[in-house]
Structure formats: C-alpha cells, structure tokens
Amino acid sequence: MPKKMRVLSLLLLFLWEAQSHSAPRPNIVLVMADDLGIGDPGCYGNKTLRTPNIDRLASEGAKLTQHLAASPLCTPSRAAFMTGRYPVRSGMASWYRSGVFIFTASSGGLPSNEITFAKLLKNQGYSTALIGKWHLGMNCHNKTDFCHHPLRHGFDYFYGLTVTNLRDCKPGEGTVFTMAFRKLVFIPLQILGVTVLTLAVLNCLGLLRVPHSVFFCLLLLAGMILVLFLCFLHYFRPLNCFLMRDYEITQQPMSYDNLTQRLTAEATHFIHRNTERPFLLFLSYLHVHTALFSNRDFAGKSRHGAYGDAAEEMDWSVGQILNVLDELRLANNTLVYFTSDHGAHVEEVNIKGEVHGGSNGIYKGGKSNNWEGGIRVPGILRWPGVIQAGQDIDAPTSNMDIFPTVARLAGSPLPEDRIIDGRDLMPLLQRKSQLSDHEFLFHYCNAYLNAVRWHPRNSTSIWKAFFFTPKFSPAGSNGCFSTHVCFCFGKFVTRHDPPLLFDISKDPSERNPLTPTTEPRFHEILKVMQAAADEHTRSLSEVPNQLSLGNQLWKPWLQLCCPSSGLSCQCDREKQDALVSR
C-alpha cells in the first residue's frame, strides 16, 4: 500500500510539473480603428501615409489580406466583433435608414443575454478593459440601469465614449444632421413662411378673410420649430459627446485636446496594473472617424491633411502600446490584433470641400455598402514565437473570428446554446491549415441579406453574389454622396435577378460581373450560393430589434448629466483632477 501511494504521489507531482511548465495563457490586446480604410496603412500598400508601428506589427506577425467586417457600419460590425455572431442574430441590425446609435439616451443596445469575449475571458480570470469607443448602447429603462454598458458585458474597467465621435461633437466641423434639418426644420419653416405671407396678401386685398388666430397659430408653430431647432444645436454636444470612467461622467462635453494621448495613457496604465495576471485590453480608437482631430505634435505634419494627421497620431499610439509591452517584457506572451470596424467613408467631405475620408485602395465602395471597399479591412495579428512573422494569409476571414480565437487561447469553452459564426484563426495563423473554415460568408446591409461569398474547398475561386447593390450618386461616382451614406432598400438600391456574380480572386475590384457567357457554370454557382443563403436564413431566430425607431429615439429620462451641473450638463473632472494632481 505505501508503494502504491508513492507511485500515485509521483504521478500527481509529474502532472503538476507538466502543467506548471505549459505555455501560460496569453494576454490579449485588441486594437480597432474607426473608419480606417484598408488602403491607409503602409503595409497594405500606402506609400505616402506614415504608419511605421502598424507596419511593424505586420512585419512581426501575420497580415490577413481578405479580412472582412461582418457589417459595413459601426454598431452592427462591433456587435458582431464582440459576440462572434452576425449582428442580425442579436437584433443589432436596423431595418431603417439609420443603422447606428446617435444618441446616448437611446434605449437600444447589445442585449444582456449576448455573450461577449470579454465575459468569457473575465470568467477565466482575465482582467478586462475597454478604452475608447463603445457604440453598443448604455441604458434600457432608466438612466442608472446601465443595461448595455461595457461593464455589464464583461469589462472590469471602461474609459471612453459610449456612442461615437461625430462632426457635431466638435464646434465648426459641420453636422451629420443636414438632411434631417432640411426636412424637419428648413422646409417646414419655408412652407409656413410662404403660407403666412400668402394669407396676409389675400387678407389685405380683401380676397380672403383670415382670422388673427390663424396667423397666431402659424407663427406659434414656426416659433416652436425654431426654438426646438436652436435647443438641439445648443444641447446635442453636451448631451451626447461626453467621456465616462466606468459609470461616472468625467468630461461633458468632451474636449479633443490631447484626447488620443489620454486614451493611450489609460491603456498603458491598465497594462502596468496587470503585469501579474492575464489581461484583455480592447483599445477602440475614435480615429479616424469625423470629426477629425490631432494634437499639435501631429497637426499639419502629414501629406494627407487632417485625415492623415489623425491616422499618423493613431499609429503613434499603437507604437506606445507596443513599447510598453516590450518594456514590461510582455510582448512574447501577448497576442496583438489590429483592425478597423469597416472600410473608409469615401463620402466624407467637410464644409470646406476637404476630403476627410480614407483610402480603400483598389477596392470599390466604402463604409455603409458591401462592395469590397466597405468590408475588407486591415487584419494583423502578432504573437512572437507562436505566429510566424512576415506571412500574408489570403484566405477569407472575418472580424467575428476573434471571438472563438481568444476564447480558445484563454481556455474558455464556447457557448453551446447559440450559433457562433466566427471560426478559430489559430490553425491558419500557425500554418496548420491553408484554408479558412469559412466556406460561405454572408454580407448584410443593415438587416438585409445583401451578398454571399463562397470559397469552394476544391477551388482557388472566391465567388461573390449580390442580391442588390446601392445606387451611387452622382452616377459614375464611388459612393452615395447625395445622402452621405448608402441605404439598403427601396429606391436607393438596384435589385439583381439573377444575382450579380463576381470572382473576387480574379476581379477584387469588382469591375466585371460574370455572365453565363463568361462563366459556363454561372447558374450552377448561383444555385449553390442561393441554397447556402436559404440555409443560413433558416438558422436565424426572431429577436427584438435593438435599432428600431423606438429604440433609437432620444429619451429624456435616459439622459445622463454631470451631477450638480444643472441644466447645462457641463463639467470637466479631468481638468480638475489634473489640477489637484499638480
């Protein structure tokens, strides 16, 4: 019996030592740009925009050349990224014109029953933080329930913006509400003005007797419209453009002064605080979404105006993160991922006529549409000693793939009660496989199934079929300039029957649609893709639409304001804290 006990003890000791010498779980650093085009970084072919730190990541890791956002808009793309699921599965895809959240006091957001990679990693003992942009909602029923807040979705720490950066957040940069103002304010005021003037003339000529009460009511209505318009202009910025730390507002409205430097400092401080335990850092930049900004060290220094200045400042920030990992000797045990939430916004031109959107390289279209320019994004992963440096991977991959990849690396099982659309990237990254696990990928324009991508296992072809495409305006342009973004239904699209078919492997710019004459298997290919689309559609469950008009509307009872700020909703705790620290 003592001999058996000694054998058992030796066996347990051996297993304990084997486990103690196994590779530790890596730290995870996920870096996401906002509206950055695949043609912007130097490692993807740009010769004039300086991105040495992003390029360094690519040279020291793997570059995905066909990395695809699950949606060409911010909110649904980020929902897919966080959950590994098509956004239509969580209700984070709109059936209406607006496909993103605009107001902090909207009631829609990422549902609490969705499982994010932050939740999975937190359950595995990781320290988790989100620094920067969230854009997946905040409150549901009252201004303190925080049902959609990052801290309710697995993050231990949050510092940043709960909605998004907009032109309206920066004085003098214009507005995203031009069309709304025209339809809801200027046209009604013009109609009321013409009506009052016409009635006054008819009344003076004695052709029509108009009671004074009619003039009073018309002028009162015009006055109400004007007052509401002026209130909107005055209050939009403080009510929607503010910074938070966890559940507390720190700056309302937010200041753009050294904003990227502040976000970077928060990120590096988080890393310093967690050198003794595994951590997940999601650094979600406000760059390069408009309004564009950069501090004096970068302003006016690039060859691409304000956009280039912002992009180069963001690249500097990436370098600061890499430097901290090196200084703390964490680089060899940290997976770093860099991407953009979707393609560059090609229609982004400011009131002075300056181009404020990025480059999508050779690819057609951009943000808000599913041409390659709207969904093909940078995808770079570095993990020294695990991912071979300097490799290019051409297989189709998705930003949804990060969810199962980091879950596996953290030792977390995937949820079994729901469909996970992402696929583990490690076999591709470690060259154990040359093929992506995605035979089919489905491209949504908001909640509408727009296109299907098929990479047959026995072929080098990558087929892409469009059920509809946006009507670019003006005709012959590369975007929907008259509406600022492309819409997904009605008069804004052209439907295709049979679907518009391309071979992306031979025609990545999508210039030459195939026909039965140019592709003998045309109908056979479309039949397979339609069957895949039908099977995918059957896998969808009906869920509440988080981006319904009711959920998107501003609700005063959900509005957050600085405590003790009264009706002004203005405070600057960051400035106060800086003064105290001195």
From TrEMBL:
Cofactor(s) required for function per UniProt: Ca(2+)
Pfam families linked to this entry: Sulfatase, Sulfatase_C
Signal sequence coordinates: 1-20
GO CC list: endoplasmic reticulum
Protein name: Steroid sulfatase
Domain of life: Eukaryota
CDD domains: ES
